[in-house]
Write a structure and sequence with these properties.
With 353 residues, the chain is mainly α. It has 2 domains: 7-153, no CATH class; 168-340, no CATH class. Helices cover 76% and strands 0% of the residues. It has helices spanning 2-10, 17-49, 52-63, 65-76, 81-98, 102-120, 127-167, 169-185, 190-197, 201-221, 223-235, 243-248, 254-270, 290-305, 313-340. Helix 4 (65-76) packs across helix 5. It is globular and about 65 Å long.
Length: 353
């Protein structure tokens, strides 16, 4: 057993929740952003502005989401070059066979293929043959065997959440908004979770609301400590920057989390905010305004398909209120009472620079 542990350490194979559930998942979201999401944004802009080259480039980018996610995961797992490059094939196979739940299939299969590839890397004199053969063979065979059921399971869970949100928009609006918003602030990827589950529709709108409440909420209530730099880095960056402060004083998280519990059902019940763009956008909030661009892309797609007559002023009002105005108003009010109770003090949300 000690020899096996020593082998794993030498190969930098760390079987842990942090390595797979945080590092790999977070990197996968970045890979998805750099392919499917940016491709969708480019295609949408191209269609709206009449720039055909943007549509073409965006189409190619979107098609490469599987390889992009897989390579990103390999990078997070610190794979040697031969393993990393072989994961391009693995990602294409897993995403293609995984269907709507392809991102989850890519996550699971790329991790297994990467670790096996790392295990054999540079162990033989014919490494240039052995390493890619093992990585690709294991990855593609696993894709053939388990990608379809993994994809179906993830898709089913996502559909169940979306169906439940349609039936119970208030309750599910609260739950989805709070859970996804919390995931966004934790060192895990809310975007990857939404992508893996294919979370769109009303549930996607609630997810957007929860993420915006955390990001805009923290940006506003910590403005005194962090100024304009903090406002921008949290408001269009990520509320994850507050994670260290949350560990020191979890009560600073109350205001933004309660705000998400309020804006979530408002998004589903009052404004009927739906995310019909890429599912990954549901977990991005105001990060680079990706959540808002995703909602807009969904509007455009719905208009083109005939599912929606036109983009109305009510659509824009709902998006602006849920994304920016309500979080900026509700969170400070709740935080005021937290300060009155002595739970939050000056300096509790100061970001370390």
């Amino acid at each position: 057993m000690s020899k096996f542990k020593g082998f794993l350490k030498r190969k930098d194979i760390e079987i842990s929740l942090r390595r797979y559930g945080i590092d790999a998942l977070g990197a996968m979201a970045q890979g998805l952003f750099c392919s499917l999401l940016i491709g969708t944004i480019m295609s949408t802009l191209g269609k709206q502005l009449g720039i055909e080259i943007l549509v073409t480039v965006g189409g190619y980018a979107a098609k490469m989401s599987g390889p992009a996610m897989s390579v990103a995961i390999g990078w997070a797992l610190k794979c040697p070059p031969m393993v990393l490059f072989s994961l391009v094939v693995v990602g294409a196979a897993a995403n293609g066979l995984g269907g709507a739940g392809g991102p989850l299939a890519v996550l699971v299969i790329a991790i297994v293929a990467a670790e096996f590839g790392k295990a054999v890397s540079k162990e033989t004199r014919v490494d240039i043959l052995v390493t890619p053969f093992v990585t690709v063979f294991i990855g593609v065979v696993l894709s053939l065997l388990i990608a379809p059921p993994i994809g179906s399971a993830a898709s089913s869970v996502g559909k169940l959440i979306m169906f439940a949100t349609e039936l119970q928009p208030f309750l599910m609006g609260v739950l989805v908004s709070v859970i996804v918003g919390v995931c966004l602030t934790l060192p895990i990827s809310s975007a990857a979770i939404c992508a893996a589950l294919g979370l769109t529709g009303l549930a996607g709108g609630a997810a957007v609301a929860g993420c915006c409440a955390q990001m805009v909420g923290f940006a506003v209530i910590s403005f005194k400590e962090n100024g304009w730099g903090g406002l921008i880095s949290q408001g269009i960056g990520t509320s994850m920057l507050q994670m260290g402060n949350i560990v020191r004083n979890p009560r600073i998280w109350i205001a933004s989390t309660l705000a998400s519990a309020i804006t979530g059902p408002l998004a589903t019940c009052l404004f009927n905010l739906q995310m019909n763009g890429p599912a990954v956008s549901s977990g991005m909030g105001t990060c680079g305004l990706v959540g808002q661009l995703g909602v807009y892309a969904g509007w455009v797609s719905d208009v083109q398909s005939g599912a929606k007559a036109e983009i109305t002023s009510g659509d824009w009002l709902g998006l602006i209120m849920i994304s920016f105005v309500l979080p900026a108003v509700i969170t400070p009010i709740i935080n005021y009472f937290c300060r009155k109770a002595g739970w939050v003090k000056d300096g509790d949300m100061k970001l370390i620079r």
